[in-house]
Design goal:
Shape: globular
Helix content: 25-40%
CATH architecture of the largest domain: 3-Layer(aba) Sandwich
Number of helices: 17
Bound molecules: adenosine-5'-diphosphate
Number of domains: 2
Distance between the termini: 19 Å
CATH class of the largest domain: Alpha Beta
Largest sheet: 9 strands, mixed
CATH superfamily of the largest domain: Glycogen Phosphorylase B
Structural class: alpha/beta
Amino acid sequence: ISKVPISPGLYIVHIAAEMAPIAKVGGLGDVVTGLSKTLQKRGHLVEIILPKYDCMQYDRIHDLKALDFVVESSFDGKQFKNKIWVGTVEGLPVYFIEPLHPSNFFWRGKFYGEPDDFKRFSYFSRAALELLLRAGKKPDIIHCHDWQTAFVAPLYWDLYAPRGLNSARICFTCHNFEYQGTAPASEMASCGLDVQQLNRPDRMQDNTSRDRVNPVKGAVVFSNIVTTVSPTYAQEVRTAEGGKGLHTTVNLHSKKFVGILNGIDTGAWNPAADTFLEIQYSATDLLGKAENKSALRKQLGLSHANPRQPLVSCITRLVPQKGVHLIRHAIYRTMELGGQFILLGSSPLSHIQEEFEGIAKQFEHHDHVRLILKYDESLSRCIYAASDMFIVPSIFEPCGLTQMIAMRYGSIPIARKTGGLNDSVFDINDDTIPLQFRNGFTFANADEQGLNRALERAFNHYRSHPVSWQELVQKVMNLDFSWDSSASQYEELYSKSIARARSFHRT
Ligand code: ADP
């Protein structure tokens, strides 16, 4: 196969529900910003379209202004005006859509978790395409993400390409196959999609329920490029256990499906320049890391008598996927082993949030354990910097960013071998992996024994081989988790898809 030359100046538009740091729930937000920044640096024109949420971090949007230009889009058979705002986030041009719709779709004080999420995001997907059409934009790539903007793929081919917005190839990235956004088929009509045409087994019909539609399935079927966020997860979702009902669809479309490991934004996550830290540090100056550990222990009211007491932490959404029972177990096991434990997390599920609030209360004044049950980016940075070890005991994990951020800050990951963790954390004792890639402690089974073994090995190593531990810390800090190599893989996919379309048009 001849190698396709990378097109130098592509015009790429991301349509997404999240963007770090202004509207972030999890990894999706980091990916949109990190990938876009890197593609922009490589000479492409990258724009992002987001909903104008009331709860964004407005102080991190520069030059935000409303355009004169109002875009009308159709929903439930009526026309609604949308106010369009533009601003700069992390150096990237962002369009914000504010629907002038009586349901106040993005004026809810939160990003997701509303009973009408299907309406909110199918509305947004359509309005975003309408904006591109009305503004006369001619993107080469429209890149949509997760079920919230998966509607873009069928809407583009069914409604917008015929109206003249036809310059683009559609790329869809699924960041987590657990969230598919299914709904009764009739709901799809609101945004203008044809229920009769699309509620079919080879199109958008959910594979387990004939009267429901599945936006993620629709995007897999209707996009030119489909990606997920790590090679191992791409394999896992092709199996019945991993695919959450979509494995047959993914297998049918396997030619256009690929797993690309996410990177992290190494500019935004950099202990040598992180102003939220007590003191900046680097792999060649680890005293600063010790100072951050001491400062955080004081700040949280933990004992700081022994600087060599191992500090284990975990930063996560508390959802079953993340192995909440193992996280809870790790708190107690760490204590038994004589370490300290910090959990920063919050849960959209009230029973889990309440359970952890109970545990938090139990340890409220404890010398060695602290649970902080909220979302707090600046605290997360201090924790990444202060920790010696970082646990990620996920049941499944499409990519996972926390293990990479932890390493960048010199915290050694203890991770379950699944999904993207399997592509980024390699056990220090695994002889099948070249020495230079080994960077942490892994375990195969998602049970307490598995986690215990890995945790104990980490504690032994930390205590018995301090010099080797410090070398490990330096090594993981120097590993390259930047977006460079992943962005170049996206660049190649984009270019190939564009080249295919052009050669098709010529013949
Ligand atoms: P997911 O997307 O499944 O939530 P990832 O590991 O891909 O998991 O991304 C998680 C991101 O969210 C990381 O940047 C992590 O630092 C951040 N994060 C998760 N929980 C919190 C929290 N409670 N406070 C601050 N940041 C958090």
